[in-house]
Amino acid sequence: MNTKKQLTVLGSTGSIGTQALDVVRQHPDKFEVYALTANVNVDKLAAQAREFLPDCVVIADEAKYEALKEALAGLPVKVYAGSDAVAQVAGSHEADMVLVALVGFSGLAPTMAAIEAGRAVALANKETLVVAGELVTEAALRHGTPIIPVDSEHSAIFQCLAGEPYSKVERILLTASGGPFRHSTAEELRGVTPEQALRHPRWDMGAKITIDSATMMNKGFEVIEARWLFDVKPEQIEVVVHPESVVHSAVQFEDGAVKAQLGVPDMRVPIQYAFTYPARIPLQSDRLDLFALGALHFERPDVERFPCLAIAYEALRRGGNMPCIVNAANEVLNLAFRQGRIGFCDISETIRKVMEQASFELHPTLDDYFAIDREVRRLTETYL
Asked: Nearest to residue 161, comparing CAs of 227, 222, 230?
């Protein structure tokens, strides 16, 4: 009998996906890869498939199907293509856990498929809960599906809450590195280039999330994610800028006690914890040296210079499909900035315009979320 945990890794060629496979390499006696998916990176996906020999692989870009099939000819690996195939693999009953490491709105459908199939979800795609947090968490409760956060901050909060009743939480202290422009003036921010914004001082991440970190929209999305993961009110979530990125987040309880999770910036730690929860197993990684660190610093975020954080709080308070509207607009504008089509500050300014123009729905269905996502992308393009 095979006692290894069967893993499906959605987005295996990205930063989180590749680090997840490193965890599997370190523990071949505990984990086995059932399925791998990627968006367009055929060469990397094929190399991973040759190493881990999953049951199947999926390339979301259907134009890449033949190239992937040819690269894996002769291997006992099934090859599929298309976004529908990604969702179907996520909903397979063969896997024990699905790691959702896809970027943006594309993570919603596969996550829902995994939840409806009763597969445990290791969630590294924050947009799923940003876009449809209420719907997703209700589905998880209905199907008895655990959602274990993989983001370093939410994993830290999850670890701090182990053995604690959520009802006793007074505040969540969500840490932020401050990104590359922590000390930049408002005027300097107007001249920021994509190359500058892509140089994050602490984390090695994909391009989209790195830009979101620079604007602090990423932290705003994490506020929304925390609201749904830990069933707290927006006013109970406080963002704390912590440039050393050693305290990954903390929880303050009603008696005044604060629990924090600390460690070196290494995403393999929260990935492995999601894979093994509630157990802990060894991981070959750097260890935190408090003596070498010397001091930790904490600051309040400046929402005047980084309005995307305020936008996220506003979207969360307005509820309904407003976070979905903000996410869709941000995805379009994030890419436009990386392409040099708009300036850094145009991102937040245009999102505010879209928020006032898009169709607001207080109680959206899953189909409504897909419809408003399409509408907002078209609307945002008109501003470009």
From this structure: 230
* CB-neighbour burial class of residue 158 (10 A; exposed 0-12, middle 13-18, buried 19+): buried
Helix (H) or strand (E) holding 36: strand 31-38
What the block records as the tokens of 327 is: 């996410």
The closest of 36, 31, 32 to 89, measured between CA atoms, is 36
CA dihedral sign of residues 51, 57, 58, 62: positive
Give 321's DSSP letter: T
AA letter at 112: M
The answer for residues whose C-beta is within 8 angstroms of residue 69's C-beta and 6 or more apart is 79
For residue 229, give the nearest of 142, 128, 325 by alpha carbon.
128
- What phi, psi does 7 have (nearest 5°)? -115, 135
> Which two structure tokens, joined as six digits, stand for 158?
């999850």
Residues with Cβ within 8 Å of residue 125, at least 6 apart in sequence: 11, 100, 101, 102, 103, 104, 107, 111
Taking the C-alpha atoms of residue 266 and residue 24, their distance in angstroms, rounded to an integer, is 15
Sheet containing strand 120-123, strands side by side: 78-81, 56-59, 31-38, 5-10, 97-100, 120-123, 147-149
Question: From residue 201, how far is each of 198, 207, 210, 343 by CA, in Å?
Answer: 9, 14, 10, 21
DSSP for 154-214 reads: HHHHHHHTTTS-GGGEEEEEEEE---TTTT--HHHHHT--HHHHT--SS----HHHHHHHH
CA 93 to chain centre: 23
How many residues are listed for the chain in this entry? 384
Contact at 8 Å (CB) between 36 and 90? Answer: no
pLDDT, tens digit (0-9, with 9 covering 90-100), for 10-58 = 999 999 999 999 999 999 999 999 999 999 999 999 999 999 999 999 9
Is 295 within 8 Å of 334 (Cβ atoms)?
no
pLDDT in tens, 149-199: 999 999 999 999 999 999 999 999 999 999 899 999 999 999 999 999 998
Q: Could you say which DSSP state residue 91 is in?
A: T
